[in-house]
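User: Hi! I'm a student and our assignment asks us to look at how structure tokens line up with a sequence. Could you show me two examples?

Assistant: Happy to help. In each example below, the sequence comes first and the structure tokens follow. Example one:
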Amino acid sequence: MNLKTSNFNSVHKRGINAENVGTIISQEQFKDLKENFEVKFPELPSSVSIPRKLIGQVLGHSNHPKGIRFMYGLDDLLNPNSVQIFLVPCTSLNDDSIGSAPIISNMIYLDHHGVSFSLKQMARRTFNWVKYISAFTPEQKYKELTRGNFFGKNILNEYLADNEFQSLLFNFGYENKSIQPVLQRLNEFNEIYADETTDNSWPCPSFCPGSPETCFMTLAAELNADQTELNQIRAFRDKVMLGVEEGGTYFEMYYLVSPQISRIINSLDNRNEILTKLYENKIVKFKQLLEASSIEEASDFMKETLDGMVK
């Protein structure tokens, strides 16, 4: 069965915002992307099936997500077949944003099997994923490695409106140093029945927030500190944390929740007061621990601060 593409194409001519992310690509492009991934990461599965009901469940989140970020994880760092895809409902930083920020209100995320995981459990598996693929991409910086891809709600809702659609075949692709997945529809017999393949998602990064302007600690430091202090915080967060126990998990947590925390703070009338208190109560103490070379205490303090901000 071949479905017409007119409805799909009309959606994606409306503009580049979060809801509209995801467009049809050719079979030739799909083949190239998939082959690139299989060559680059030969031991990882090339595709994962995601049930229809999970797509609908995540899009039905009470906070009305703009789409889903499919985050990648490994349950076991030593087992490439333990790949997990987490379905993370996302909002936009603003109505016209080209970025997506995870919704963290209920702190529970589903993997492609429908199993629930906490934010920290998901972050730990994301760290395993990034650590694994970094061995195959030594030319890339750690922060640049793809952790997930975002598809807008319009293309996913059009899939859900197709009664023959029963599950999503999530094919991994690779191009331009970025993982670029391609979506295909499966029917009740687990067969691919439509010619259309969907890609042009937003990768995480670079469209995954994580830049300084969306980091709550950076907001506080920029308001109250100088550039030297700011660079000191960033260096610890992006380099030292990865080398301490559970540091990689908290590194991934930090970049997942920072955009939402910053968004909430920026929306409040007492924004500057909150950021000043955050600086005085957290950043100043953190800086003192660094100056005393108390690396372990500094990392523990950053973990405690992040746990507190999330709660």
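Example two works the same way, sequence first and then tokens:
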Amino acid sequence: MGSSKKTQTTKPIYEAQLTGAADTLKGVYSNNAANVQSISDQLGGLIPSMLDKYRLGDSGVNAARGFLTQTLESQPDQNPYLEQIVAQTNANVADKTRTAMGTRGLTGGTVMQDIVSRNLAENESG
């Protein structure tokens, strides 16, 4: 009255070939385990120094970033290069404005001085 169950296992068609390939791969790895460990140790040793170099960044880029930050954050009277540029452009703006006014016969008056002053102020603020 009791039923007996039989467990049936099915073997893959290519079981022998798969087992043989797995054994071959295992043998190759076993024969090269020391080399694999050596390469792994070498790569592992390189990583901290690579991370340190990454964190330091490129010295040229860092210098340029520092220069730009200093230039942009400084006050105009603390940046002689910027002051020279502004002074030169102010002279150019004043000369061009006076020349343009002179060609229209409007030289020397307070209107001319007002126009020159406004143009210089616009140049400095720009």
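Here is something you could point out in your write-up. Helices lie at 15-56, 59-73, 80-102, 110-125.
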